[in-house]
Amino acid sequence: MKKNKITVIDGEAKLQGQGKIAITGKAGELSTIVAKHIIIATGARARELPGLEADGRLVWTYKQAMVPQAFPKSLLVIGSGAIGIEFASFYRTLGAEVTVVEMLDRILPAEDAEISALARKSFAKQGMTIHIGTTVEGLNRHDNSVTARLAKPGLTGELTVDRVILAIGITGNVEGLGLEQQGVKIEKGHIVVDEWGATGIPGLYAIGDVVSPPWLAHKASHEGVLCVEKIAGIEGVHPLDKSAIPACTYSAPQVASVGMTEEAARAEGRSVKVGRFFNIPATSMTSVAAFNACSVIRPSRL
Q: CA 211 → CA 21, 60, 101, distances in Å?
């Protein structure tokens, strides 16, 4: 940072309009800086729901799940997106009894339905318990365990585990920045921007997890480059094609995909060709959609 002549200021910033940012330092001192262009990159945090708040000891966010003080013998993972499945697979591989609860009708709902089914079959074979179409209505916290109240149509029950991981998505860090006062549009906890990261307020931009999905580090980095190159007026800059960003779930088996799912392609009225390859190692599953021909390629077994 120093080598590239970047000034770093420690403190809390708030937009004041007309390119002004008010900064409150750690000692409470106030200062103001002015810039023609301002880029917001405040990231995001784990989403929480009433009654399912993380406390860092019994109920973890995904960040807290990476640095536990002790290894749990049993674990409940709420949510089966990429983050939830990654932690479920990780802890199961290390020997924990893992239960996954998903309110939708299948795990990894962003992936192709066939891939989701194959993944679920593999996880179940490893000893993981998976409940789909199920919600967690509440958590009762004890001295060193948690009892979750589970519900699905026509059935309710309880499950007691050592720890719980919340994996129900993320929400952008948009509070306290003065966004509303400047007229910045926020939807579902994230800043709305155009293809260049512009908020619609002159000179104000946003990139990364604080804006729309996919919420991936490589996508955030690329957005930063595009935004700055556009501001600098560099010729040949083109918007990011989000449909071409690979998605991956670091579980065992691994899951990866790019492009449209077969279901999404058919919903658009496209002609779909499906190819299955039988020599893919048992440790991975791949779903690839080619954008022009809209072919879907994936294995038929693990």
A: 20, 24, 27
Q: Are 177 and 11 in contact (CB under 8 A)?
A: no
CATH number reported for the structural domain that contains residue 191 in this entry: 3.50.50.60
Domain total of the chain: 3
Give the Cα separation of 296 and 264 in Å (integer): 11
Whole-prediction pTM value?
0.85
pLDDT digits (tens, 9 = 90+) for 70-125: 999 999 999 999 999 999 999 999 999 999 999 999 999 999 999 999 999 999 99
Count Cα atoms within 13 angstroms, Cβ side, for 22.
12
Same domain, 183 and 231: yes
Residue 249 within a domain: no
What domain range is 196 assigned to? 12-40+174-242
Instruction: Give the number of other Cβ atoms within 10 Å of residue 198's Cβ.
Output: 16
Among 219, 211, 213, 214, residue whose Cα is nearest residue 189: 211
Task: Please indicate, yes or no, if residue 248 is contained in any of the structural domains.
Answer: no
Q: Measured between alpha carbons, how far is 77 from 84 in angstroms, rounded to an integer?
A: 6
Question: What's phi and psi for 102, nearest 5 deg?
Answer: -130, 130
Tell me which of 152, 167, 182 is where a domain ends. 167
